[in-house]
């Protein structure tokens, strides 16, 4: 996989994100241009692109990628000053750790 590949994901909050578009070279540039035009944050990660490039348009991301994609989507929402669909800040406990990490 080379640097001239783009993959667009769609997330509606009801199910796992799906592949909306994929492309290389000029088509990749068009995908990126459309994302910028609509102020959609762009995340560059060649390893993730390599994993996602095996999926077909309309296919959901595999469960193994849920965590990393969720973190990217959450950060994109944060950058845009938005909250994910159905998210309620009141439902999050301040004392619940995000990750299971051993105490220091």
Automatic annotation (TrEMBL):
The keyword Transmembrane helix does not apply. Pfam families: Bac_export_2 (PF01312). Keywords: Bacterial flagellum protein export, Protein transport, Transport. Belongs to the type III secretion exporter family. Required for formation of the rod structure in the basal body of the flagellar apparatus. Together with FliI and FliH, may constitute the export apparatus of flagellin. This is Flagellar biosynthetic protein FlhB. The lineage of its organism: Bacteria, Pseudomonadati, Pseudomonadota, Gammaproteobacteria, Oceanospirillales.
